[in-house]
Write a structure and sequence with these properties.
CATH topology of the largest domain in chain A: Gyrase A, domain 2
Low-confidence stretches of chain A: 1-8, 68-72
Helix content of chain A: 25-40%
Order of helices and strands of chain A: EHEEHHEHEEEHHEHHHEHH
Shape of chain A: flat
Distance between the termini of chain A: 60 Å
Number of strands of chain A: 9
Number of helices of chain A: 11
Strand order of the largest sheet of chain A: 2-3-4-8-5
Radius of gyration of chain A: 25 Å
CATH class of the largest domain in chain A: Alpha Beta
Number of domains of chain A: 2
Mean pLDDT of chain A: 90
Oligomer: homotetramer
Largest sheet of chain A: 5 strands, antiparallel
C-alpha cells in the first residue's frame, strides 16, 4: 500500500524575492540559503535563516571590553583571542536556523543538546513519510573490540548483503503495517471503510528507528561550536558526523574567521592535565621519563604518548 | 535467539542503610524512595533522590522578600501566594531525581522539556532489553475526527485483536533481528563465530519505537510543575499522562502544600483574554451577549461558553 | 575633574550600506534599525539585528504539525491559536538583538531573565561614563502602604527637591572620587604622576547604583514575550517598564500578528482557578454567592471581584 | 541615623533536628552544613542543602553506559574517565544550594552564570543592611599595565590610606542618605512624620556597589565546576576568587573523588592547539624550533613557552 502524493513531507523552496536590509549580511552564506546538502541516503541539512557575522562577534566583544579593546586593531586577532581564551559570550550573538532531515535514532542523539530551539515534524498530527536510512555497505561495520561505543572492521562477504536486506525488509514491513494501522486513504477517507483505523499517536510506535524525521533546529554560534566539537569529532557516530561536517562547512561560509579560529584552537586541540604538563617539562629538559614514576596511569600514559607521537 | 540473563537492564534496589542528616527530610517521600510505580505494561517511575521540601520554598521566598514577608505568618499562605502570582523562582529551590522506564516514542516527547538533566541508557554501548509497549485493548483508539492530535472511539470487534497481534509480531521480529545483527552470545563471545556481527550503534536502528528505554531524569519543582501542566493535562497523550499522574502523586507526598496550590491555581485554572473578560462583565451585569458582537471568534466563543457551562 | 572625550562610551552608528538578502525581512523594523529610543534621562533601547518574522512562526508550526495544518488557511489564525493554547516553541524561531543603556539597579532586575545572551560593558576593562539616573519629579513617589514592592503618592512640597539634590550630589561625588581613584588622564598617562591609582576592577565599587551601564541583549520571541509579561506589567517598577513598553512597540513593528495575539491573550488576560470558575458558574446561573461559602479566601475574593468589576 | 535591630538581614541558624534518610548522605559535608565560611570583611558562603554524592555520578554513568561499564570495576576510575573525556551529564546529577553574602559588584559578575537558580534579597521589598566591602590594604592594587582586567602593584605610602578612607566615607554617606530617603523608623512608623519618604525601589539607587547583598544560589555539580574553572582561576578578580576557593573546599568534602579529578584534569590543565602540538612533537624529536617558522604568533609562542617553562 502506498500513501498519496499529498502526504509527502513538503520541503519549502527558497523564496524568489530578494530583499533589502541594513542587517549584517554574508554573501557567501546567502548563496547557500535554502540549498539542501544531501546526506546519507535521504537526509539533508540546509540553512533557512541566520543573524550576525564575524563582525557581530567583534562588536559584542567591544561593548564588553569597551575602550579597553581599541588597540586590538584587527577583528581577526580579537576573534582568535576570544576563542583561545574561551571568552564565549560574544559568539552567542550569532544565530542560525537549519532545516534538517535525519533518521530518528540520530535525532535522539542530537536532541541531547538542550541549548537550541526545535520544531520537529509531529507523528501525532501527521503521517510520516516512507523513508528509512539503509547504510551504505562501506558503513556496515562490526562492533569495535577496543571501544565500547565504536565500530571497526567493515563487514565482509555476504554478511553485509544479508544485513542490508534485513534492515530494508523490516523497515518496509513495519512502515506498511503502520500505514495499514492508520487506514487512511487520505485524511478524510479511510482506506478500508470497514475498519476504524488506529490513531496516529499510537500507530507511529510500529515504525523502526531508522525512519526519517525532520525539524527546524536553531541555535547560537557558541552552542553550535560545542555541538560540532562533540559531533564532528572522530569518536562521534558516522551518521551524525556527516551532518556536523556539513554544518561546519556552512559555518565556514558564514563566519570564516571564527570558523578558522575554531579549527585551530578547538578541533585539533588537546588538553594536558597538570601531571602531564609536569612530564612534558621533564621530557623537554632531556630527562628520560618512565610511566611507573610519571604520576600517570598506564592508560593516561598511552593516551599522552600517542598524542605526542612518542613510543609508549 | 535470546540474550543471556546477564544482559538484562538491572534496576538498582533501595539501599538498606538509613543515614542521619541535617537536611530537610520528608518522611512521606522517604517511604516511597526507590519504590517503582508500575506504569503501562513494562514501564515504571520511581524517586531516587530529592532535595528540599515545602519549607525550602518559603525559606527562599523570605530571603528574596526579606523582612517584607514577616507578616505572612503562615507558610501555606505564602506558598499559595507565590503560586497564584507566578513567583516561580522559590520553587526552583526543590530538586528531584526520577528513574523512569518508558517506550522510546514517549521518551521522544518527554525530552522536549529542556530544563532537566538526563542520563539515558545508551544503545551505542549496551544491548537493549527485549521489552515493548503493547497497549491495553481499552487504549486502542481511532483517530479523533475533531482533534488532530487526539484519539477517540475505542476499536471494536476483531480490529483490536488484529492491531495488537501486528504490533507484537513486528516488535518481536524486529528485536529478534536486532539480536541476530548483534551476533553476541555475550559481550565477549559471538553467537555465530562465522559472522562478524553489526556494531551496536547501527543494529539499534532496526528496533521499533515502542521498545522500552530508561533514564535518570532530574529537574527542579518549578520545571516539574511546568512538565505536569502539559503532560498531566487531558490533551496529553495517554501514554505520557500516566507517568505525569504518577509523578504528581509523588509530588503530593513530597511538597503537599505546593502540590495543593498547584492543583488549585494551575491544573484546573482557565485563562480569559481581555475581550473575554469584557464579555464576562457584561454577562454578570445581566446583559444578553451574542457571539457576533462579542469581539470573539466563533471558536473562541464556543471554548468560553463550554468553560462557563453556558449554552453557546 | 572630567574624563577625556576619548573615554565616552561610544554608540556605533547605523551602517550606511544596504545589503541584499534572501532572508525574511521586515521593512517596518528595518526602518527602526539602529535608531535609539530615548528612555529615562540618559537611557535608550535600539534594535541592532533580528531574524525571522510572523511567517517564520507559521513555518515552524507547519513543520511540527505537518500536513495536519494545511486546513488552517490563514497565518494569523494559526498564530493566534498557538498563542492562545501556549504552543510556545514556534515563537522561539524569531530572534532579536537589542542595544540597551540603562541604570545598574535596573540591569540587576533585567539580568534575572536567564534565557538570553548578554554582553555588558565591563568596568573591569574600561572606565564608566559619568552618567546617572536622576528621576523626573513626577516619578519620585513614597512607598506604597498596600504593596510592599510598589510606590504610591508623588512626593510633595520641597521634599522632592531635597531628594533630587541628594541623589545628584551623591552620584556625582561618588563618580568624581571613582575618577580620582583611577588616576587616569588617559589609559596611558596618570592624572597625578605621584599616585599609582587604583585598579579599575576595584575603583568601580565606589559608584552608585544609578550609574548607567549598557549591553547587547539578545533573545528569542518566546522569551521576549515572557520578559514583557513581567516587565510591561503594571506591577513592574516604572524604570524597567518604560524599557519593556518601548520594546513592545518594536515587537509590533517586527511581528505585528504575534504582537496583537500577545496583547489579546496574554497582556490583558486573567487566570481563574478551579474554585473561582465554580463561583463564576454559580453567579452566571443567577445565584447570589457570598465569600464565606465561596471556597475562596477573603483576599482571593477581593481580587476576583475587582477583576470582574463586581462589588466585593 | 541608624536602623533598628529588627532590620538586620537575618541568617537562619542550623536546624537542631537530625533526620533519618535513605538518600545518599555525605558525613563530611553534613559536618559543614549551615556553617558560614567568613570571606572578605562581611561576606560568607555556606551550604544549606545538597543532593547526591560521588556514587550518584557513577550511578548515572552506569545507566547511560549500561552493561558496557561493568568492567570498570572501580568508581574512582570511572569518575576520572568521565572528567578526562568531558562526559559531563553524570555530574549534573549532583545538586548543591549555597547561601552567600557578597558585595553587589561581585554579585553582578556571579549572576552571569545562567545555569543556576537564585533567590536574592530584594531591595524593592526590604531595607538593605549597612554593610560595605572595604578591601584589606594588601588587596589595594594599581591597574596592571600588561592585563587590562587585572591589578598589579599594591598601593604604597599614604595612597592606600586615602583610598580606604574615601571608599569608607562614600559608602557610609550614601547609605546614611539612603536611610534618610526611606524615612523609616520601622516599616510602620516614619522617622520624620513630616516627610513622606521615598519608595524603597527608588531609594536603593543611592547605594554604592560595594554594599553587601545575599542570596540562595543552587546549581548542579557540572555547572559548579564550570563556575569554579572561571572564578577559582588566577585571572579571576580576587574578590570573587575567595568565594570560589571556599566553594572548592566544600566540594572536596562533598564529592572528594570528583573534586580530585577536577583538580587533576581541569584546574591545572592546559590546552594546546593543533599547531602547538606540531611544535611540541618537533621539539620532542630534538629539533630546534624558532617562533617565526613555528606557525604560531609571537604572543602564542610566548604563552606556550611560559607554560612549558622553556626560554622564549
Amino acid at each position: 500500500m502506498s500513501l498519496s502524493e499529498d502526504q509527502t513531507i513538503t520541503i519549502p523552496a527558497a523564496p524568489e524575492t530578494v530583499y533589502k536590509t541594513l542587517r549584517a549580511t554574508v554573501p557567501a552564506l546567502e548563496a547557500k540559503l535554502y540549498e539542501a546538502v544531501p546526506l546519507l541516503d535521504h537526509g539533508f541539512v540546509r540553512v533557512i535563516d541566520y543573524m550576525g557575522d564575524d563582525h557581530a562577534i567583534v562588536q559584542a566583544a567591544r561593548v564588553s571590553y569597551g575602550r579597553g579593546t581599541r588597540k586590538v586593531s584587527e577583528d581577526a586577532g580579537l576573534i582568535r583571542y576570544l576563542m583561545r581564551h574561551r571568552h564565549t559570550t560574544p559568539f552567542e550573538m550569532c544565530e542560525i536556523k537549519f532545516h534538517v532531515k535525519l533518521p530518528i535514532f540520530i535525532a535522539r542523539q542530537w536532541i541531547r543538546h538542550r541549548m537550541a530551539s526545535v520544531n520537529e515534524y509531529s507523528a501525532r498530527y501527521s503521517v510520516m513519510d516512507r523513508e528509512f536510512y539503509i547504510p551504505d555497505p562501506a558503513q556496515l561495520a562490526a562492533q569495535s573490540t577496543v571501544n565500547r561505543q565504536g565500530r571497526e572492521a567493515v563487514l565482509e562477504g555476504d554478511e553485509a548483503a544479508r544485513v542490508l536486506a534485513l534492515l530494508r525488509t523490516d523497515a518496509e514491513r513495519s512502515y506498511d503495517h503502520y500505514a495499514w494501522l492508520l487506514n487512511e486513504e487520505s485524511a478524510e477517507k479511510p482506506a478500508d471503510p470497514d475498519r476504524q483505523g488506529l490513531a496516529r499517536e499510537l500507530a507511529r510506535m510500529n515504525l523502526t528507528l531508522n525512519t526519517y524525521t525532520q525539524w527546524y533546529w536553531k541555535t547560537d554560534l557558541h552552542n553550535l561550536f560545542h555541538f560540532l566539537s562533540l559531533r564532528a569529532d572522530s569518536h562521534a557516530q558516522y551518521e551524525i558526523r556527516v551532518y556536523a561536517e556539513a554544518m561546519l562547512e556552512i559555518v565556514e561560509a558564514w563566519v570564516p574567521i571564527a570558523a578558522q579560529a575554531y579549527r585551530d584552537y578547538r578541533l585539533g586541540a588537546h588538553s594536558f592535565s597538570a601531571p602531564m604538563l609536569s612530564v612534558l617539562r621533564r621530557m623537554l629538559a632531556g630527562e628520560k621519563v618512565e610511566q611507573p614514576e610519571s604520576g600517570l596511569s598506564a592508560r593516561e600514559w598511552r593516551e599522552m604518548m600517542a598524542t605526542l607521537e612518542q613510543p609508549a
